[in-house]
Design goal:
Bound molecules: zinc ion
Number of strands: 13
Structural class: alpha/beta
Largest sheet: 5 strands, mixed
Strand content: 15-25%
Helix content: 55-70%
């Protein structure tokens, strides 16, 4: 299976790096080694002896390992195709990871037009079909020249699996490729990407439930393979849900600017004060957990949080200055009042050293501060205004 998109789950990042293709990190998740081994076992012990009887165990195992390597290679080709088409269309691709259920390409930006999205989505399955054709021709070729039956079996198996991969991925269910195709088509005809996301993720959920139900039926019939379908369905369900939530949040905040959510005119503390003074006269009496610090000319020089002052040992608080432990100005995330909120959020997400805060400047003048609770409040208000029944949890 192959999926692609901006948001991915954390578990995929634990991977073994294979290398780089045009600036894109390519890695393999540890789960792939387990899956590869299970697959090789199934092929060496069942599939290949049935298709081409009469060889030794070692031969079956060697050939099975080669087949699995080619299989993962074709999965990788599928993902690389998505990524290269995306890159050519100006989408930033961060990494490709092979993991439990196939490949995942992680993009930092999204397709700008439905046509681009369509091309990126179709590139993967098209590559799988091409691989199927090549493997199929190899199988026919080996057969024609009277080559080994095992060679025909391996190439034939790879060809069939590649077709299955392409067809499965074309199911019109986000986050599968077919779901992206559906999204692009609805987007093109309606001009509304939020509506397109709803349609594609709704189908994604239906498809996932179908897979889970199928898995349970197969399990009930006594085949352990059902577990695989159920797992896959559960994974798709999680991914489809995450995507629709993300789209809702994005939609709710998209029309806001930094000035709409910031807490205006934050209280500023002097950067020449000692930590003890700052605790006594600022943190304890004014209900803030973060203060911008200003030098004597009034220029903002740092950002001091409760977390940082608590790290200063009690006996040192009288002579350590606030500015010595504060986030220096250069590391503070800043925004202009009219900056769109999604881009502000993106910056906040990437910066770790700014205590989760963004300072809003109008020219040189500090006019506001944005904290995670400001974002939360904006989300809650957006939910009140736009979604009468609360956030979509269906
Ligand atoms: Zn794909």
């Amino acid at each position: 299976m192959g999926t692609w998109g901006p948001g991915q789950t954390e578990s995929m990042h634990e991977s073994l790096r294979l290398g780089r293709v045009r600036g894109i990190d390519v890695g393999i998740n540890w789960s792939v080694l387990v899956i590869g081994w299970l697959l090789a076992w199934a092929l060496a012990d069942g599939e290949f002896p049935a298709l081409a009887p009469g060889y030794g165990d070692v031969t079956y195992w060697l050939v099975a390992v080669v087949a699995v390597v080619f299989f993962f290679g074709s999965l990788l080709a599928h993902e690389v195709a998505h990524s290269l088409v995306a890159q050519r269309a100006g989408v930033r691709v961060v990494r490709i990871t092979l993991w439990l259920f196939g490949g995942v390409s992680q993009f930092e930006t999204e397709a700008q037009t439905p046509e681009t999205e369509l091309r990126i989505a179709v590139a993967g399955p098209a590559t799988s079909l091409l691989a199927a054709l090549v493997f199929g021709l190899v199988a026919v070729g080996i057969d024609r020249v009277g080559g080994s039956a095992l060679g025909v079996a391996v190439a034939g198996w790879l060809s069939v699996v590649s077709v299955v991969l392409a067809v499965f991925n074309l199911a019109p269910a986000a986050p599968l490729d077919g779901g992206r195709v559906l999204h692009a088509l609805v987007w093109r005809s309606s001009g509304d990407t939020a509506h397109a996301t709803k349609v594609a993720t709704d189908w994604g959920r239906r498809f996932a439930y179908l897979l889970i139900a199928l898995g349970v039926l197969v399990l009930a019939a006594g085949y352990l393979d059902g577990l695989w379908f159920a797992f896959l369905g559960w994974f798709l369900l999680t991914a489809a849900r995450a995507e629709s939530t993300q789209a809702l949040l994005h939609g709710a905040l998209a029309h806001l600017a930094a000035r709409d959510v910031m807490t205006p005119n934050p209280i500023v503390a002097p950067d020449t004060a000692a930590v003890a003074t700052l605790i006594k006269d600022w943190f304890l009496v004014r209900h803030c957990s973060v203060f911008p610090l200003a030098d004597q000319s009034g220029t903002i020089s740092g950002l001091l949080s409760l977390r940082q002052v608590r790290r200063v040992p009690t006996h040192e608080r009288d002579h350590v200055l606030g500015r010595a432990v504060a986030v220096p100005r250069a590391q503070i995330v800043t925004a202009a009042p009219d900056d769109p909120l999604p881009s502000v959020l993106e910056h906040m997400g990437h910066a770790s050293g700014s205590e989760g805060r963004t300072l809003v400047f109008n020219g040189d003048q500090l006019v506001g501060i944005i904290s995670p609770s400001d974002i939360q409040r904006a989300l809650d208000l957006a939910a009140l205004r736009n979604l009468p029944a609360g956030p979509d949890r269906s």
